[in-house]
Amino acid sequence: MSNRQRTTIYRGTVINLGLETAVLPNGELLTLEIVRHPGGAVILAFDNRDYICLLRQFRYAVGGWIWELPAGVIDSSDENPLETARRELREEAGLEADDWVALPPILPTPGFCNEELFLYVARTLRDIGAHPNNDEHIEVHWKPLAEVMAMAIDGHIRDAKTIVALFHTIHAND
User: Fold this and answer.
1) Cβ neighbour number for residue 150 with a 10 Å cutoff
2) H-type helices in 73-159, by residue range?
């Protein structure tokens, strides 16, 4: 990857879109549209009843409200994913957690984007009051795992990062 040629098309606050010349395993050259993304963190927070903190959040890009876990973008090159997770849990859900467990990270859209999401389970929570960003419209809900899993199965939860975090959590206990 160090010898890749890249022409930047757009550089925003979160993403960088460019045309990159790729050398495929068979030696063929190909120009691809690639989004470079700093990555993010996703938090599956359980309270002392084992209810999950689930957000109902307005997402303009998909045209309305969706259900998802607290999550956010890594802010800078010196913020590690766990720091991002702690910050996002505070901002979006108004929670701090004492116990953190990392789940396997995921690549949500590897066909055109290098974004890597770091998944965490958070427990031993304290409510400190939410402070979402001005562009975030969020409702915080607490639901039992069985209900959240049913929402994922019946299509009420369509957010991939949330579904994968749930999958890892239920299968970690097998």
Assistant:
1) 13
2) 81-88, 145-153
Same domain for 24 and 45, yes or no, is no
Same domain, 10 and 96: no
Provide the CATH number for the domain around residue 73: 3.90.79.10
Q: Which residues are CB-neighbours of 70 under 8 A, at least 6 positions away?
A: 42, 43, 45, 53, 55, 88, 89, 92, 93, 95
pLDDT along the chain (174 residues), means of 10: 79 96 94 97 97 97 97 93 97 97 97 97 95 87 97 98 94 65
Residue 3 is predicted with a pLDDT of 57
Residue 165, judged by CB atoms within 10 A of its CB (0-12, 13-18, 19+), counts as buried
Are residue 46 and residue 116 in the same domain, yes or no? yes
Beta strand 117-127 pairing with 95-102: antiparallel
- Are 21 and 50 members of one domain? no
Residues sharing a CB contact under 8 Å with residue 13, sequence separation 6 or more, in sequence order: none
Whether 20 and 97 map to the same domain: the answer is no
Which tokens is 25 given? 């395993």
pLDDT reported for residue 109? 96
pTM of the model: 0.93
Contact 81, 118 (CB under 8 A): yes
Domain range enclosing 165: 40-172
pLDDT the model gives residue 1: 45
